[in-house]
Amino acid sequence: MVIKPRVRGFVCVTSHPEGCAAHIQQQIDYVKSKGSISGGPKNVLVIGSSTGFGLSSRVTAAFGCGSKTVGVFYERPSDEDRLGTAGWYNTIALTEKARAEGLYARNFNGDAFSNEVKSNVIAAIKEDVGPIDLVIYSLASPRRTHPDTGAVHKSVLKPVGKSYSSRTVDTDKGIVSDVAIEPATDEEIADTAAVMGGDDWERWITALDEAGLIAEGATSVAYSYIGPEITWDIYKNGTIGLAKNHLEESCIRISSKLKEHGGGRALISVNKALVSQASSAIPVVPLYISILYKIMKAKGTHEGCIEQMQRLFAERLFNGADPQLDESGRIRIDDLEMQDDVQAEGATIWPQVTTENLAELTDIVGYREEFLKMFGFGLPGVDYEVSTEPHRPMI
Ligand code: NAI
User: Fold this and answer.
1) Mean pLDDT of the chain
2) Residue with CA at minimum distance from ligand 1 atom 18
3) Continuous segment of H or E residues that includes residue 27
């Protein structure tokens, strides 16, 4: 099958197995170019390991620290005549490359929110990994079936307490327009916190603890975002931001639990705004990201997921590093994004952007390239005219 990108709104419905493998190789090469990370974890569980920050965390753990990695994700598998999702192919490529270097890698495709997946993963860890030193929690999901009640909670991206209007961009068509979003209901606020808050993270840690699988001095990290004021009504003060507050509250409880295991710790890392399958679905954010990329590339401070995660591991978590916590106890690996000069320039560009000057004032071209790369398109060295086998069984 010859596979071309087919973009539908903010998703690409096709993905390219060789392109995804080339993307993984780029990430591995980057991590290796930075040298090995001393004092890193031996055994790592990544929940949400197939794309975005979770994927780059797993690459950094395996190829930067030499860790055994267990990945949990929810992807559509390929079959004889149907493409798998990018995360499916990413995981196969990562696993092949890890095993080729003698690194242990095991995968679980299923609903991380369910009790069944938790017990399967824990049984496997017990069987052939042993206590976990690092748990990365990097889920981004539109819904969660509650494991106790069976209720389906759907997360929404809406303002809280007031309606919100701003500009946004259709990244595919390049059209800048105004968007107005009505405030979330109380139920939507609670549902979003049920999906994107910390309840499930805490359940994973409790389940590992009960199985005796928390290593002495273990670390667990979940990811959050704050960003600039222009996005606060939809992000920081919106439904997703309130869910992130819940994540931070859970972090305090998880940290006390991990402390009992030889001084372990749980941390929130506030990451940079990046093109990901999750962020492309948020109104307003892709326009902000296109502006941000333009500014940060010009300053030479631009980073993608892998640069962020390599820096998080090497300069904040391990290598004897000081995590440099902010006043609320969070890691700020969004430090370069939040620099005053970057934000001041962004605030100047923001009101000027129109459909006509989008390509000039923003890095919409770079945004689209990054977007397609997530699905394995536009990678150097991949011949996209050549027919490729869509079916790749999980290994
Ligand atoms: P992503 O969409 O690239 O990755 C989400 C991962 O979760 C994938 O591996 C997916 O398979 C997995 N997943 C989703 N539902 C699942 C389920 N029910 N069971 C098992 N696995 C499931 O997302 P991204 O952007 O990497 O986000 C990860 C975290 O980072 C989120 O907490 C997000 O809020 C945070 N973050 C994202 C930023 C961005 O700009 N993309 C910025 C700062 C933080």
Assistant:
1) 97
2) 111
3) helix 17-33
Helix (H) or strand (E) holding 203: helix 199-210
Q: CATH number for the domain including 233?
A: 3.40.50.720
pLDDT tens, position by position, 337-385: 999 999 999 999 999 999 999 999 999 999 999 999 999 999 999 999 9
d(C-alpha 35, C-alpha 153), whole Å: 42
Whether residue 263 lies inside any domain: the answer is yes
CB atoms closer than 10 angstroms to residue 259? 13
Q: Which of 30, 235, 288, 293 is catalytic?
A: 235
Q: Is 110 helix (H, G, I), strand (E, B) or coil?
A: coil
CA 5/CA 15 separation, integer angstroms: 7
Residue 296 lies in a domain: no
Q: How many whole angstroms separate alpha carbon 328 and alpha carbon 330? A: 6
Map residue 43 onto helix, strand or coil.
strand
Residue 235 catalytic? yes
Amino acid at 278: A
pLDDT attached to residue 283: 84
Which positions ≥6 away from 55 have C-beta within 8 Å?
A: 27, 49, 87, 90, 94, 305
Burial of 212 (0-12, 13-18, 19+ CB in 10 A): exposed
Which element (helix H / strand E) includes 119? helix 115-128
385 domain residue, yes or no = no
Q: Is residue 27 part of a domain?
A: yes
Domain count, the chain: 1
What is the reported pLDDT for 183?
98
Task: Report whether residue 367 contacts ligand 1, using a CB cutoff of 6 Å.
Answer: no
The residue segments making up the domain with residue 56 are: 7-141+185-283+302-335
Name the residue type at position 199.
D
145, β-bridge pairs = 152
Burial grade of 294 (CB within 10 A; 0-12, 13-18, 19 or more): buried
Asked whether 219 lines ligand 1 (CB < 6 A), one says no
> In sequence order, what are the residues at sequence separation of 6 or more whose Cβ sits closer than 8 angstroms to the Cβ of residue 29?
none
